[in-house]
Design goal:
- The chain is of the alpha/beta class and about 240 residues long.
- Helix content is about 20%, strand content about 25%.
- The strands form two sheets. Strands 1, 3, 4, 5, 6, 7 and 9 form a seven-stranded mixed β-sheet that branches.
- Strand 6 and strand 7 form a beta hairpin.
- The longest helix is centred in the N-terminal third of the chain and has 16 residues.
- The protein is globular and about 55 Å long.
- The two termini are about 25 Å apart.
- The chain binds zinc ion.
- The site of zinc ion has 7 residues, from strand 1 and helix 4.
């Protein structure tokens, strides 16, 4: 049977009108406020990247607000520090992620792109009043010991270009949510996190942008560690018996 049980999960972030948090404490929030894309889709296993292989990404800046590439790299650095995953910037691309990752360059596992809703990709219709979406494609694989696993093989981050142009920039507190918070949120999806079932606006993975300074919450950090390096290497083919 061909191994084509490729699954797509996309989750979305919605921008709410202004919600400001009055103060910031590092890793504020509920340590239980995290969940995983694969489990929210009915799987018992946590889909995650192979932490033993650098994950290459490209950025389509054609519709991006100025300075976005630097913010994307900073957001990836924040995900790397929280997960132990390593990311490699492979350059720019003109790819706009569509309904499948098959159009990615061969060296690319994640594409970050800004689009005009209703114009650049059918995956982002003009009716979608959202700031962006992120997700991960995963398929069955194995741990080093030959146990069943779900391996993320591609990630997607698509952002609303006209909306991003109106948002505050960077990772500080911003009325309505800044572009740094948005990037961290969507990259969280691309490494396998879903919106927490516990309602906790201290988390970056909260379903709505909060406007808080963009620091991972306590639940974010618990979830990010579990999709990170601690779980050991993953592979798509069964390990060879020693
Ligand atoms: Zn989301």
């Amino acid at each position: 049977v061909p191994l084509l049980r490729r699954l797509i999960v996309a989750a979305i972030a919605v921008v709410l009108p202004l919600t400001l948090q009055s103060s910031e404490v590092y890793a504020a929030g509920n340590t239980g406020a995290y969940s995983f894309l694969s489990q929210r889709s009915g799987h018992s296993l946590v889909a995650r990247w192979d932490p033993c292989t650098p994950i290459s990404y490209r950025v389509n800046t054609e519709r991006a607000p100025e300075g976005s590439l630097r913010e994307v790299r900073q957001a990836f650095d924040r995900v790397a520090r929280a997960t132990g995953l390593s990311f490699r910037y492979a350059g720019k691309t003109d790819v706009v992620p569509g309904p499948s990752p098959m159009d990615y360059p061969a060296d690319t596992r994640i594409v970050v792109a800004w689009v005009r809703p209703g114009i650049d990709t059918p995956a982002f219709p003009s009716s979608a009043d959202i700031a962006g979406y992120g997700g991960a494609y995963y398929q069955p694989g194995y741990t080093e010991r030959g146990e069943e696993a779900l391996v993320i093989t591609a990630g997607v981050v698509v952002l609303n270009a006209p909306m991003a142009a109106t948002m505050g920039r960077g990772f500080g507190a911003q009325p309505g949510g800044g572009t740094g918070e948005l990037l961290m949120h969507e990259l969280g999806h691309a490494v396998g996190l879903a919106h927490p079932t516990i309602d906790d606006p201290a988390e970056i993975m909260h379903a709505e942008l909060t406007g808080k300074a963009a620091a991972w919450g306590a639940g974010d950090l618990t979830g990010l560690r579990q999709v990170g390096g601690d779980g050991g290497c993953l592979q798509l083919t069964p390990p060879t018996p020693q």
